[in-house]
């Protein structure tokens, strides 16, 4: 690893030299996890480079290849698993200047990876009355490239499913890290090679995404004294084929009272809260359905309310923002990502609640998977020890609820604990020296790893 | 019933006096059914009036009320069950002049009932790049009012569900037939009073419908040698949350070869045919899915083909157009409407095929119901006798497949054989004399009817 030579060769590019900002550009939201906080807090890049276009990306990759310098790509660094953190140091390639919306067509957009989700939506809306189908709740701060390379789904997934589902990404243009970097265009089955691969096997330089119509979504809060009734309502709503929604989230009591400051004055401690986004022309249908559950209370709608202080956008209570809000009030809170899959979702949810509440409080996101309505749980966990956290994971798994562990920094441990062969195979050809975001793909480092314990990347920087 | 007095009082309106055209305006597509053909062929109105606006509708209803003249409303008369046929004679009120698109907004349109579906779509597309969510396959000839009052769903229902589902109609403005007709506005739960009520309890004078984006749908035909594989593919496609479709239809062999003249040269007798409409920006996802079934063959796509003669629009092969095409070739063909509901749809379909093919050939439409993908069967039946037809219905019902009998002219017999209390109750207040489309609501005429035999309206015109 010859850092100085690489830096010198790249000196004509936009290189960030300030130590504080190198430090900032080497971190993401890994500190959500007490486990990752313990392992990654010291990690820092040697330098940060900010390419302005694909040609400069290629230059960075080529030079770093030549000097054996690891390259970790950064969108906005809002990931939760240390995905964007340079475990071995080296170069952080920050894509903030590659933010152009290149073309908006009916049903699709072509964009550079560094564009913020909110800027992308603004451009699509202004030019065509459209918006992206789904976004991470970090819409205001995250990039589209980071969402595709590091995220999974979010606001909109209750209707459109997850990013990995066929049709939710149309095309990715990818640059490899070889002696002579290649430019590849992926569609269809090939997309799985690099989407949600943490930038370990290629850098995405252009993205084509499907669009949906942009509506003035009505954002709402509904309360219920009965957690399961609230959960069933969210599910029933999502099963109404004629009612168009973009978000349906359930927060077990007392999450709203304890952690949602602007909502707290309007709820009681035993209120389960439902957060919703409904298309304006579906509001009649929505209210008809709501009227069938007289025990539910509509306490807030964004287009018509008398709250002294607006709660802000409702989706910033959902997805991983729930954890963020809880953490701000109680730093001992962390979370789990659980799949409550169809058709047993309601049973599993109830069972976990009986077994673990209030140590674990349900936060459920309605999700479409394979044409069925189910739930993703981003459960809030009152953290005590790593052992207990592992135990809680095991209780879920034993009951049949798959857990995507957010307290791990590798692709496999955060996923289904299996190697994605398509990603591994592509890494072999696209990153022969293993310099792209090292330490994140166990299959590359240690094919025989047995997942008995948390993986620890051998070449991770030593803590001081 | 004082016809002459009513005609005289309405003489300043557009009244159709020509016998041939009165006869034509008294008929619909009832002749699809040999059973209905036998019962209804002679039915004819005394006169036809064509109001130009709501005020004239009110005038017609008021005058006919005064003179005890039955009023049967007509959109375009493309219904299949004699819905628009004046069983007792009297007045046919034809809404062809009430065809204005009043306002197009994001996500919704306000329109008069006599507007043709195709004209409505054209206006929405031109003004806003939108279109209606679903339409009857008689898009080119049927009215939006007739679709709502007499139809159930169609092209688009594979994504949005049926007309009766919450959110698929926003608002209906309705005029009653009382001494002083009232104008009512229905939303939410109230919509069920008059939608799919055949105009038996109120006349719809204005409609507010939700809209979806208008895309240049790619229309396709795919063949398979394996019927169940084709059916599973259609289902799998509809379960892909990220692939936007508007139509997925399966035709058992040899329907395509025998009845689809322009398709026949491109298929063999043992080819099951799938008809599809996919959004252009979902074509990559679609082709990826298709690629996973190498035994399926894409033989036609509307945006790129080398067929000498275009097959025309693919949706005019689906829904009830299938029956029409079959009938034209073999007049002994009729059909059934079957619900192959989730989760047993594939089993039921296979079972019925084993029991009844080729006397009954499957024609399946993918349909969303309660958030699940299932199938509506519009099975083609080689008609022999009414007894055998009833037997075939019974075989379906015994296996657990609900049949909506298209060989009956009443609401109940074409539906779930139960009285819709909301419709009956509303008829009591909106049509106290029972003059609106008489003979179509058994619950009104004969509350104790036991459905053992086909209902026969006692006051039906005598055949000459
Ligand atoms: C409060 C909060 C809420 C969140 N909510 C959600 C949510 O709803 N859904 C969700 O999926 N995630 C969520 N996340 C995680 C994260 O914010 C999102 O995944 C986000 O979209 C990542 O974008 P980013 O620009 O910050 O990516 P980064 O964190 O910068 O990068 C993410 C990963 O992608 C790689 N990468 C970035 N750009 C490229 C590129 N061009 N080519 C190749 N690799 C690249 C990085 O190396 C890294 O591994 C949330 C996080 C927080 C803190
Ligand atoms: C080839 C073919 C294909 C078809 N495909 C489909 C399909 O895919 N889906 C489907 O649902 N149907 C289908 N149908 C049935 C029919 O075409 C549709 O339901 C159509 O939308 C009816 O519209 P219309 O204007 O012809 O109505 P009409 O036949 O004129 O009327 C239908 C019923 O509604 C009543 N009515 C009409 N206007 C009003 C009003 N303003 N107020 C109150 N009552 C009123 C009439 O009295 C009658 O009872 C098909 C029929 C054929 C022949």
TrEMBL record, chains A, B:
Keyword Cell membrane belongs to the record: no
GO biological process terms on file: lactate catabolic process
Protein name: FAD-linked oxidase
Sample GO molecular function, one term: D-lactate dehydrogenase (NAD+) activity
Lineage: Bacteria, Pseudomonadati, Pseudomonadota, Alphaproteobacteria, Rhodobacterales
Keyword check for Transferase: no
Keywords: FAD, Flavoprotein
Domain of life: Bacteria
Residue span, FAD-binding PCMH-type domain: 40-214
InterPro entries: FAD-bd_PCMH, FAD-bd_PCMH-like_sf, FAD-bd_PCMH_sub2, FAD-linked_Oxase-like_C, Oxid_FAD_bind_N
Species name: Tateyamaria omphalii
